[in-house]
Each structure stands twice: as structure tokens, then as C-alpha cells.
Design goal:
Layout (H helix, E strand, L loop, with lengths): L4 H21 L14 E5 L4 H12 L3 E6 L2 H15 L4 E5 L5 H14 L5 E4 L17 H16 L1 H6 L3 E6 L23 H22 L5 E7 L17 H14 L3 H4 L1 H8 L10 E3 L2 E2 L9 H15 L1 E4 L4 E4 L1
Parallel strand pairs: 1-2, 1-4, 2-3, 4-5, 5-6, 6-7
Antiparallel strand pairs: 7-8, 9-10
Helix pairs in contact: 1-8, 2-3, 4-5, 5-7, 5-11, 7-11
Amino acid sequence: MSRYVLPLSVLGTAVGGAVLLKDFVSGGACPSKATIPGKTVIVTGANTGIGKQTALELAKRGGNIILACRDMEKCEAAAKEIRGETLNHRVNARHLDLASLKSIREFAAKVTEEEEHVHILINNAAVMRCPHWTTEDGFEMQLGVNYLGHFLLTNLLLDKLKASAPSRIINVSSLAHVAGHIDFGDLNWEQRKYDTKAAYCQSKLAVVLSTKELSRRLQGTGVTVNALHPGVARTELGRHTGMHSSAFSSFTLGPIFWLLVKSPQLAAQPSVYLAVAEELEGVSGKYFDVLKEKAPAPEAEDEEVAKRLWAESARLVGLEMSHERGQPLPK
């Protein structure tokens, strides 16, 4: 059996390199030069990586930027750095812990009270392939932060977004959603042996499914919602993946990864594009692979799965459903 280990490792390296190459060449700078003076933008997970670069790019374009982060020390530092680099003083840090429904409700209430408008909501924050942790409310961490936390946040800000229309919601998903499956019998991995990769893929599939369902619910409101795969980037998101735990992988795939993986600045371009591009006005319910619209995985387009997931998500986060409109209402 051992004689197959090296060839399989080589095959894995080759496949990984091919995926990175395709991802790298498909990217580029945001093609839109549109500015957003006076528009209020919320970016979650904006103290580092793609989120920070997204906030920076949108601050350069004149937006009123709210960095929504769990670590306020890092968030304040990022906000200060962005203000200094862009000379846009309308960049502020606010506390948001997506692993806490209480924190999400407090953040949304403060935004609703203090902000006249919210024009753009970018649900960017994520955790990836972490150990079997749970959120404050008992959700599996990746499902809780990547999906359920943003699901609640978005719903709590919908009235503000509708009042600010035309407005946009951008959900950062991942190409990994294609390997995902929604297990309604055990969404929180309480019965199965925990598989951190499968849990991540499930959370990112849930993001695309909810994007489709929310788009359907928002028809005629002037609020659009789209999902995207930003590309593979050099960020802190992959700190739990263990790619370098294998000496062979580190030696062979490592150099390929370093050469082809995107900088956070480049990986932020799809979020910027969906946020500002005038040609995307009115476009909703779509999935973008970097800068190009693309069909997502077949399960991501299953309307019945999307509706069922929406109802279950609303129950889990404590949103009551309005029977008249089929819309969640905050308690």
C-alpha cells in the first residue's frame, strides 16, 4: 500500500496546483470605476484579510464604512489605518461577534438607531475548518459564524436596507460549496462524527441557498442579494487547514500555493465589484465565481431545499415567521 502514497501525493499536488492556476488567472481588478460617496457600507470581519481590503477599497471610493468585528483592538487599528491611507474619516469600528446571537442583535439595534441608511451589507466574516467548536448559542462554529450569524444580521437590517434602496447585500461564499450538502437531520453535527471540511462546505452551501431564497423574497423592494467565491487568498482564514503539517505537501504544494494564491487585495475585488458596479443594478440571486456570473452547484439551486433551510434557520436564530408574507420578523 505504501508504494501508492507518493503517486497519490503527487496527484493531489497536481490537482491542487491546477485549481489554484484556474483561480488565479480568472481574477483581476474590479472593472468598475464607480464611486459611492455618502453611501453607508457594513463589512463583517473587516479587521484583516479580504474584509479589510474590501473596506479599504470602498473607503477609497467615498463610502461611509463600518467595520464590524469581534476583536475591537484589531478593528480599531484597521479603521485607523484605512482612515490614514484613504483620508476618508468616515471609517468606524463597531463590535460584532457572529458567534453570539445577543451580540448580533445589539449590533443591529445600534446600526438601526444611529445610521440613517445602510446601502451595502457585505457578509464577509468566516471561520474555516476549525476544531469542533460551538458558538455561544450551541451552534457548530462554522455553520454559526459563516451562515446563521449572517442570516440573523441580514434579517435584522432588512428594514433599513429597504428604506435605503437601491441597496445591496453581498454574501461571501466559496467554491467549496460544490462539495457541500445540507443535512437537515443533523445540521449542527451533534450525531455524526465531526468532519471539519464537510462542515465548512455545508456552511458555504447554506450561504448560496439563502442568497437565492432571500432574492426571491426581496423582489420589488429595490434590495438585491448575490453570493460570490472570492478566490483562494493568503489570509488568516486557512490557519486551521493544516496544509503544512505534511512535510511533503509543504515542500511540493507550498511553493505553488505561494506563487498562485491571491493577495487579499486581489481577492477583495469581487466583493467590491458586486458592491459598486452600475451594470449590476437590479441583478439579484446570482452566484459569481470571482468576477464572472456562474451557475452554482445543483443543490444550491434547489428551491425546496432553500425554503426548508430558510424556515429552519429562522427557527434556530429566533425569528418568527409572518404567515401573510412568509417573511421573518425579529422578536
